[in-house]
Write a structure and sequence with these properties.
The complex is a heterodimer of chains A (343) and B (607).
Chain A lengths: L29 H15 L7 E5 L3 H4 L9 E4 L5 H11 L4 E7 H7 L1 H10 L3 E7 L2 E2 L5 E2 L22 H7 L4 E6 L3 H13 L3 E7 L15 H7 E3 L1 E6 L15 E4 L5 E6 L9 H14 L2 E8 L6 H5 L11 H4 L3 H11 L1
Parallel strand pairs in A: 1-2, 1-3, 3-4, 4-8, 7-8, 9-13
Antiparallel strand pairs in A: 5-6, 7-13, 10-12, 11-12
Helix pairs in contact in A: 1-7, 4-5
Chain B lengths: L16 E2 L1 E9 L4 H14 L4 E6 L8 E9 L12 E4 L5 H6 L6 E5 L12 E5 L1 H8 L6 H17 L3 H11 L4 H21 L6 E2 L10 E3 L1 H11 L4 E4 L6 H14 L11 E4 L3 H13 L4 E5 L1 H17 L3 E9 L5 E5 L4 H5 L9 E3 L4 H18 L2 E7 H5 L2 E3 L17 H6 L30 E3 L13 H17 L8 E3 L5 E6 L3 H15 L4 E5 L1 E2 L3 H9 L2 E6 L5 H9 L7 E5 L8 H11 L2
Parallel strand pairs in B: 1-8, 2-5, 5-6, 6-7, 10-11, 10-12, 12-13, 13-16, 15-16, 20-21, 20-23, 23-24
Antiparallel strand pairs in B: 2-4, 3-4, 9-17, 13-14, 15-22, 19-21
The chains are: A alpha/beta (343), B alpha/beta (607).
């Protein structure tokens, strides 16, 4: 018997076990590149597909959960509100790994309130904001992340300042905030793996050009503009917990953050040293870059050890949805006690 | 100071009303009158007389007028009674109106400085120097305001013949565990009683005489009953946002859960109760948790249901078990948030856009609040759909007497759920495939191992295998199946309660109107010679009994506490030919319905 030529991960699954249905997005859509990295990183991390809940709202980005992890459970819900669905899912079963695929229209307008409160509660989820500055499915209107001066295809110019999802998330105390670019698969892959290792809300704003409505000259989120302006803060490395000791990190050359499962992320400075654990320093760097018109990417802020939703709720470790009846239905003596109190 | 009623009754001799009268207490919101009123209510109840207590409170924390109505009735009529027999006036702002609205012959106890006894010549007035009594009996001036109301409890007990022992017990019950407060209030009540003993001539119009009609019964509110129903139904995820009059459902549940829903092995909770940022998010949590296999619920009121509508439509279409409790208040808009209504019948039945009908349960008593909430979880999982429990402020927040609840035995109905083993055996599973031809498909719970259970849930068109579909045939067959599923619930929802006299004249009602209808039927029979049959609707979809009743009666008076006859509209949807027999009997001034309203409207239709 010959050895299996198809590579498998640590739980014996091939990458094929992590793919989903064929994408129906436009050819060249940045979102498909993100989907590829979700598949790649979930496979590399050895996540069990049956333990994954893929949740989304409404929009092009929200269609993507169909295209990855076909063996997982997916829920394409209502506009901007995957965050609350996810909160319900994780309360019901805290053993699940949650992924939200959202977009700038979904998360930064109607979904803003839910996103904010999800971060406040530190709901365990990898939240991927596939950010292209326009509404795709309704044919090219500006979203709340459209830059000032960016034009629509038919020429109108955006004058209203954008929201920055990352500084917002940092301000809210999110313990994992990253910005990446669908055209930088290597970096996105590292960030996603680190996000899976994070406990609590991992928020990733991935700038993802819309080839149909926002890839023209005058758009600040076209492939060309983004490629020209992208400025990675650091070169990221990810050492998963199961490979500890196998990778040597040259001392003194990189920053390092350890995650609860033992995984480590390394940061090698590219231009100047950036401390991803310094929230205020991070704001300064991001704001300066914005003024200069630079597009900074990288793992902007990491803080481990914050209590999550499950800590706040004091729930049993087992999924409460499927606890045996004896644990969730008090006996007749309890009803009797409740009645006696009222007598 | 009056030794006798200051105005003698003119003309007619009044006969004594024994264990059959109503009391109204007018106070200022936030003055602590609730404890006093509940003590009075409970004392009469402990004397063995059926009572109900209705708090007409403002949407305000302190300062606005509030009224508390107690009805005592030996026959067990506990609906609101319009005419007040004993008025206790403590609020200067409303005192004059409170007196002017009374029927001739009523008795008034008032705070002396109000000098109300010159207002009318056809009432019995008792002027009581409350400040003087409280000053003499309570040593701490800063507590005078708090215990002043307890003085009228003592005065009323004396004049009505309520045993002070019962008043003391009722106060102890109200303030359980706060010994100092108990003593302070008992002393105040006694001071009021003693003052009345020495200073008031006994009246013989209103009298409480010990009876045994409340033996083994207790006083409860519907929100507590619903909370108990949910706890014993094994609810595991509760998401909510505070809104009057529903908030106490979750607050009570939370109290009970702290004691009775802790895993003994780990000390951790077996229930998640989470206050969300709004009703949109609460609905999202409930739908998400139901999808993930939890027994999930929220409690809200009309405005909250409006906000939840989009998610409820998703829950219906994507088939997520979930329980939505609507403790209805008076709308539209902010409306009268502290007043009762049955104005969400249409909203809940067809909540969301497109073609929807939801399973709705309409409890009409404390026991049904408990049972139906429990049952709602079984129905939600059996039919994989949102289920509404439609209560109202009158049921939810007012004081009702009830028998103690019976423990609901047996296993939960978790519905059609495939586990790993079953999935391995099934060759051709589709999440929305109607294998059993009952409209209910087999689902899987996220996290089920084996690699065969995953599926994609969406609010967009889908085929039996949960795949995205814009195919007109897929769409139609799916939406038709949802209708079959809904109608299939006829066999599972609570059937209506029929009380037949062989009449061809029918009364129909639902929910909190029941006590008023019961009383109205007796009045119609005894004083108008008009016997009626009575069918109380308890659920949507309507069962066969509803159709038979519509067919068998010549005319049906449908009692509703809303303006538009919303239940009548639903009956018209399902039984257009029979619904022509319906006559709307409506009450929607924001107060709880009375028997007299029903009688008057039926009489007005003519024989």
């Amino acid at each position: 018997m010959t050895t299996n030529p198809v590579p498998t991960n640590q739980i014996g699954l091939t990458k094929q076990d992590y793919v989903g249905a064929k994408s129906t997005l436009c050819a060249g859509c940045g979102h498909d590149a993100i989907t590829s990295q979700i598949i790649q990183s979930a496979w590399e991390m050895g996540i069990e597909p049956h333990r994954v809940a893929k949740l989304s709202g409404i929009g092009c980005s929200s269609k993507t959960p169909t295209y990855f992890l076909g063996q997982a459970w997916g829920f394409n819900s209502v506009h901007g509100r995957a965050a609350s669905v996810c909160t319900g899912v994780t309360l019901a079963n805290r053993q699940l790994v949650n992924i939200i695929a959202s977009g700038d229209g979904d998360s930064m307008s109607i979904g803003m309130g839910q996103l904010v409160h999800m971060i406040r509660r530190n709901v365990p989820v990898v939240y991927i904001l596939e950010d292209n500055g326009v509404y795709g499915l309704t044919k090219g209107q500006f979203s709340a992340t459209a830059d000032v001066g960016s034009t629509l295809k038919h020429g109108s110019v955006n004058e209203i300042p954008p929201l920055d999802p990352c500084t917002l998330a940092m301000e809210l105390g999110c313990g994992f905030v990253a910005r990446s670019f669908s055209g930088n698969p290597k970096q996105l892959n590292m960030i996603l793996k680190a996000a899976f290792a994070h406990k609590g809300t991992a928020f990733i704003d991935v700038i993802s050009p819309c080839v149909t409505w926002n890839n023209h000259e005058g758009s600040t989120k076209s492939y060309k503009t983004l490629k020209d302006k992208e400025m990675p803060l650091h070169e990221l490395g990810f050492v998963p917990f199961y490979e500890l000791g196998a990778v040597e990190i040259p001392p003194g050359e990189a920053r390092e953050v350890e995650f609860p499962d033992g995984s480590r992320v390394t940061f090698r400075a590219i231009r100047e040293d950036y401390d991803p654990t310094d929230r205020f320093g991070g704001y300064r760097t991001i704001h300066k870059a914005r003024i200069k018109g630079e597009f900074l990417t990288g793992l902007l802020y990491v803080q481990q050890g914050k209590p999550t939703l499950h800590d706040f709720m004091h729930l049993t470790e087992a999924a409460i949805a499927t606890l045996p009846q004896a644990l969730v239905k008090p006996g007749p003596e309890v009803l009797q006690a409740c009645m006696d109190e009222l007598l | 100071m009056s030794l006798a009623p200051s105005t003698s009754l003119q003309a007619e001799e009044t006969k004594t009303l024994i264990n059959d009268f109503s009391i109204e207490v007018a106070t200022v919101n936030g003055s602590g009158s609730q404890t006093a009123n509940n003590a009075l209510l409970r004392a009469i109840f402990q004397m063995g007389i059926p009572v109900s207590g209705k708090n007409l409170f403002p949407s305000n924390i302190a300062g606005l007028p509030t009224w508390f109505q107690i009805r005592a009735n030996a026959k067990g009529y506990v609906a609101r009674k319009h005419d007040i027999d004993l008025m206790i006036c403590m609020n200067p702002e409303t005192a004059k109106d409170d007196v002017m609205k009374l029927p001739s012959g009523s008795t008034v106890i008032f705070d002396e400085p109000l000098k109300l006894d010159t207002l009318r010549g056809d009432l019995s007035f008792y002027s009581v120097p409350f400040q003087q009594i409280v000053s003499a009996s309570c040593p701490e001036p800063k507590l005078h305001k708090l215990v002043k109301n307890m003085i009228y409890v003592g005065v009323a007990a004396n004049t009505l013949g309520i045993d002070m022992q019962e008043i003391r017990a009722a106060i102890a019950k109200q303030l359980k565990g706060k010994q100092k407060a108990v003593e302070l209030n008992q002393t105040a009540a006694q001071a009021g009683f003693d003052w009345a003993d020495s200073n008031m001539l006994p009246q013989d119009r209103l009298r409480v005489i010990r009876d045994n009609k409340t033996d083994g019964m207790l006083i409860m509110d519907g929100n507590t009953a619903c909370a108990l129903g949910a706890m014993f139904a094994g609810v595991t995820v509760v998401a909510w946002y505070p809104i009057t009059p529903s908030s106490s459902v979750v607050e009570k549940l939370s109290d009970y859960a702290d004691r009775y829903r802790i895993d003994p092995a780990t000390g951790k909770r077996t229930i998640a109760i989470i206050q969300m940022e709004d009703e949109l998010a609460s609905a999202g949590v409930v739908i998400g948790a139901g999808w993930a296999g939890a027994r999930a619920m929220t409690a809200t009121s009309g405005p909250g249901i409006s906000l939840m509508s989009e998610f409820i439509g998703l829950g219906y279409f994507a088939e997520c078990p979930s329980v939505f409790m609507d403790v209805t208040r008076m709308g539209p808009s902010t409306g009268l948030p502290t007043r009762t209504s049955q104005g969400d019948i249409g909203l809940t039945a067809k909540c969301s856009h497109g073609d929807t009908y939801h399973i709705c349960l309409y409890p009409g008593s404390m026991e049904e609040c408990y049972q139906f909430t429990y049952q709602a979880f079984d129905l939600a999982e059996r039919f994989q759909t949102p289920v509404f429990v439609v209560s109202d402020l009158d049921l939810g927040m007012q004081n009702w007497i009830t028998k103690p609840f019976t423990y609901l035995e047996g296993p939960f109905d978790r519905g059609k759920v495939l586990d790993q083993t079953q999935l391995q055996e099934i060759q051709d599973w589709g999440r929305y495939k109607d294998t059993d031809e009952d409209g209910i498909c087999w689902r899987t719970i996220p996290g089920t191992p084996g690699g065969k259970g995953g599926y994609f849930t969406r609010g967009t068109g889908h085929n039996p295998y949960a795949g995205y579909s814009e195919n007109p045939e897929d769409w139609k067959s799916n939406i038709d199946r949802l209708q079959r599923k809904f109608l299939g619930a006829r066999a599972a929802v609570p059937c209506p309660i029929l009380q037949s006299t062989g009449s061809k004249r029918g009364l129909m009602a639902f929910g909190s109107s029941d006590p008023a209808v019961v009383e109205a039927r007796d009045i119609l029979r005894d004083t108008c010679g008009m016997p009626t049959d009575y069918l109380r609707i308890r659920a949507l979809p309507f069962t066969e009994e509803v159709e038979s009743f519509l067919r068998d009666m010549e005319v049906i008076y449908l009692v509703e506490q809303n303006r538009d006859g919303q239940m009548a509209s639903l009956l018209r949807d399902f039984f257009p030919d029979l619904a022509v027999k319906l006559r709307n009997v409506l009450h929607y001034d924001s107060t709880a319905i009375t028997a007299q309203t029903i009688v008057d409207q039926i009489i007005a239709f003519g024989k």
